Amino acid sequence: MSHSLPSVHTLLQSRGYIADEYVAMSVYLAMQLNKPLLIEGPAGVGKTEIAKVMAQALETDLIRLQCYEGLDAHHAIYEWNYQHQLLYLKMGESNKAERSQEEMEKSIFSEKFLLKRPLLQALTHPKSPVLLIDEVDRADEEFESFLLEMLSDWQITIPEIGTIKATHIPHVILTGNRTRELSEALRRRCLYLWIDYPPFEKELAIVKSKVEQIDATLARQITAFMQELRKQRLNKVPGIAETLDWAQALAGMHINHLEKSLVESTLGVVLKDWQDIRQTQLSLSELFDKVGIKSKLEEA
Q1: What share of the chain is helix, strand, coil (3-state, %, to 5)?
Q2: Which tens digits make up the pLDDT trace of 231-245?
């Protein structure tokens, strides 16, 4: 099923993703050209969410490969189910079946003993899935080279079975936080999208969309506070994910406005570094002044 640019934008919006035109355009072009989309940006700005929403919009499965240092091709493609293979061999011995070594090897190295990992799952899926290769910059350069080859040929070779080609070419989303510079070859193979922290009005719209029960005043104060907080020198800058967690928590407590004592006691929802929390606690008065929030004492 083909989609137009307006329909892609509408699909994203209908699934709760507030997308700018350039985001919708990138997703649309990736779908039209059957090219991987590399999305980079700070942590917590909604990069992986695009893949989730895309899978929902296309009514297909999301297959996720979480990258990490030391990830090798086998863990990403396939593994043999050694326990079942051993059990099968034991059963053959007990039944005294007369089979040649070649027949035995062919039996145990067949598809029924194959454990498909994300990349092989994506290639053999009956319908074009969305393949999310998350935090690709955490993987080693060797894995990146293999990935580049797979994305070019859409096939994988398993020595015991042979070459497996894609049943349907998956929609591929790669994400990165720029912890390591990716190769020029991989970048050229992909379309590119950079997602930054959203401006005030967009972040406010996201909060209202995702936390429907939130008080309007609280939503504006949380958003303004988060916007100002990101301007501070922090070790780990909070993203939209932290904004939503905080909004959800405070709305669940039926809070309708921010107070210093409340912010101070809930900073652990937003900040994940003790130095950042300590620094923010010491500068709360200044932050409140900048975002125009008054405490109860000041209002009195």
Answers
A1: 55, 15, 35
A2: 999 999 999 999 999
